Automatic annotation (TrEMBL):
It catalyses: propanoyl-CoA + H2O = propanoate + CoA + H(+); decanoyl-CoA + H2O = decanoate + CoA + H(+); prostaglandin F2alpha-CoA + H2O = prostaglandin F2alpha + CoA + H(+); (9Z,12Z)-octadecadienoyl-CoA + H2O = (9Z,12Z)-octadecadienoate + CoA + H(+). GO terms for cellular component: peroxisomal matrix. GO terms for molecular function: acetoacetyl-CoA hydrolase activity; acetyl-CoA hydrolase activity; carboxylic ester hydrolase activity; choloyl-CoA hydrolase activity; fatty acyl-CoA hydrolase activity; hydroxymethylglutaryl-CoA hydrolase activity; succinyl-CoA hydrolase activity. The keyword Chloroplast does not apply. Residues 214-331 form the Acyl-CoA thioesterase-like C-terminal domain. Belongs to the C/M/P thioester hydrolase family. It is found in: Peroxisome matrix. This is Acyl-coenzyme A thioesterase 8. The lineage of its organism: Eukaryota, Metazoa, Chordata, Craniata, Vertebrata. Homodimer.
């Protein structure tokens, strides 16, 4: 049965002028062709995703007890929330049968993760039902929980009820530049402030295991006051392959925390975060997908107040199917920006 689309509030809200974006990207593209070609050939002969071989490849210590290590640590020097959520889901998934699929998870980040030591994941088999199976996972460092997570799995079941919002209309990933290509472009600007240059070079040195193509770079880099909404194409770097749907959900959980909370700051270019951390993270998986293939990530923040911001995300397969949704609340304490960005 064909999926029914719910129209209305999410159809082209006028935030994205497709022609302008295409023009801007075309100009950047010609400057960056060489870099782009060498990168493309690098990705073509790629390599298993590091998410598969390392980040989400937990070591079993005992029954329902696993150890996870880190690959990429953000500048904040606290563990990346997406990594902890992704690893917690891997641990939960190891205790359920192959016939079950992850359909949702709900997490609280209760302490900052320490990048100097591994994380232990302790799984509690909360309930095995006929259709639904629930697991509780505690992520532990220094003897204390840093994350608590409930994950639920379901057998595949048919349903006459099927609908989804329509996917936003945006340029395809082939017409857009990667974050690294954009940074090279900004670095080539002669009037770029030394401080900004340093920051960009640090970003470039990061080995983030996901590839990102912002739909509108100005939104991505907060170059002006914007609606609290941004879109980017994302996929795991390297090859994961078909099959293991639970693993693709774990990778999507990893990706889902990337750049999500920053959406709250888009209307406020006059402020920058002096403290930002996600408080909780929930996710729902809707259809099968490949996390090593491009998916459109639509992030929006419907509310901010009381030093907190709420963000919601939708991940779209490029054929228009809604693959996953997520919600997160984060704490954001800001300070005024002294110098405007010269990107
Ligand atoms: C959320 C907290 C910090 C809450 O703990 P808490 O003890 O209640 O902490 P807190 O009082 O909020 O202090 C935190 C910080 O806020 C400051 N603060 C507190 N009150 C004020 C105020 N009135 N004015 C100005 N500043 C204030 C405090 O001094 C703390 O700052 P400090 O750590 O001392 O620099 C804690 O539970 C925690 O750390 N949880 C883990 C959060 C986490 O690690 N989440 C995952 C990582 S974040 C992420 O992955 C997003 C990535 C985004 C991306 O890269 O795209």
């Amino acid at each position: 049965m064909a999926e029914k689309e719910l129209g209305g509030c999410h159809e082209n809200s006028g935030l994205i002028d497709k022609n302008k974006i295409l023009e801007a990207n075309e100009a950047l593209k010609s400057e960056q062709d060489e870099v782009s070609q060498s990168r493309n050939s690098q990705y073509q002969q790629d390599l298993k995703s590091v998410l598969l071989t390392s980040v989400l490849n937990l070591e079993k210590l005992d029954v329902d007890l696993y150890r996870g290590t880190h690959h990429w640590v953000p500048r904040t020097q606290r563990l990346f929330g997406g990594q902890i959520v992704g690893q917690a889901l891997v641990a939960a998934a190891k205790s359920v049968s192959d016939s079950l699929y992850a359909h949702s998870l709900h997490c609280y980040f209760v302490r900052a993760g320490d990048p100097k030591v591994p994380v232990l994941y302790q799984v509690d088999r909360t309930r095995d039902g006929r259709s639904f199976t629930v697991r509780s996972v505690k992520a532990i460092q220094h003897g204390q929980p840093i994350l608590i997570c409930q994950a639920s799995f379901q057998t595949l079941q048919p349903s006459p009820l099927q609908h989804q919002f329509p996917m936003p209309v945006v340029p395809p990933p082939e017409d857009l530049l990667t974050v690294e290509e954009l940074i090279h472009h900004y670095l080539s600007k002669p009037d770029l402030a030394e401080e900004a240059k340093k920051g960009l070079k640090k970003l470039l040195a990061n080995e983030v295991p996901i590839e990102i193509k912002p739909v509108n770079p100005a939104h991505f880099y907060r170059l002006g006051p914007e609606q609290p909404r941004r879109l980017f194409w994302g996929r795991a770097r390297g090859h994961i392959g078909e099959g293991n749907m639970k693993l693709h959900c774990c990778v999507a959980a990893y990706v889902s925390d990337f750049a999500l909370l920053g959406t709250v700051l888009l209307p406020y270019p006059e402020y920058r975060a002096k403290f930002a951390a996600s408080l909780d993270h929930s996710m729902w998986f809707h259809s099968t997908f490949r996390s090593d293939e491009w998916m459109l990530y639509e992030c929006e923040s419907p509310w901010a107040g009381s030093s907190r911001g709420l963000v919601q995300g939708r991940m779209w397969r490029r054929d228009g199917m809604l693959a996953a949704s997520c919600s997160q609340e984060g704490v954001l304490r800001v300070k005024p920006v002294t110098e405007p960005s010269k990107l």
